[in-house]
Amino acid sequence: MLSLRQLEIFLAIADSGSTIAAAEQVSRSQSAVSSALAELENRLGVTLFDRVGRRLVMNEHGQRFYPQARLVLHQADALGGLFKRGGGNLRIGASTTIGNYVLPDLLANAAHLPCRRVEIGNTHEIADSVARCDLDVGLIEGKLQHPDLRTTPWRQDEMVIVAASESQWSSLSDAATALAQAPWIMREAGSGTRSIVEQQLLGDFEAVNIVLELGSSEAIHNAVLAGLGISCLSRHIVQHSLASGRLRLIAPQRRLWRRFYIVQHRQRETTAAIKRFLALCEQSS
Fold first, then answer.
1. Number of domains in the chain
2. pLDDT at 114
3. Which residues contact 144 (CB under 8 A, 6 or more apart)?
4. Nearest Cα to 153, choosing from 45, 258, 279?
5. Do residue 53 and residue 126 come from a single domain?
6. What domain range is 140 assigned to?
């Protein structure tokens, strides 16, 4: 029979890439970690790692085993907290706009929730973390298809095209040609913001002049303020700059509406803490 300790050691090796680092992570000797891995592979009848230089890299068997091992450990952790007040600790993930501008107010109204960890990343990073069971629930900026995830519509978000008020693009016309030729500042591929803008706005243009890609909407906001180009951002991000007059709306009739989503693992138990957080999300929608 497989043990939880074996699963924990397997996951530590998979995440760290070596038995030495894994031993430090699980507070065991390297020989104990190596023995546990060998016993696990013997019980499964397959090897889980390939040795590449000094690193251990999951092979096809390891990649298939990883999400199930992670799920079993988290289910065991949930059982351990089943009768604790609040139903155990909560690990929340949010894509960047939600994490920086929506989630803080949400958590401020949920001081009673035992939140142990908050992870901020782009939509695909958060979805992957939920699929690996590293997070209990994720809030993301675009719908996606994943066989292990359940996606639930949450709330709407308005996105607007903005330029610095003192820039040459502040009076740009709403003609598709003029907008396409303007210098666009965009999020990286994989972000919910980038996907929505490409699908609902830029898809109508023959070509787009993308001059800069940045890894956060805050960085794009600052780049637009500096006069480097135009962008389409959530109103949550730019509302203060619009109110102060530093930014100006351009082509207001081309604003977009997107949906935020809640993602959960299909096989994870919905603990009391998760239920309370989901109820809070529903109240705020």
1. 3
2. 66
3. 123, 124, 127, 151, 263
4. 258
5. no
6. 90-155+259-284
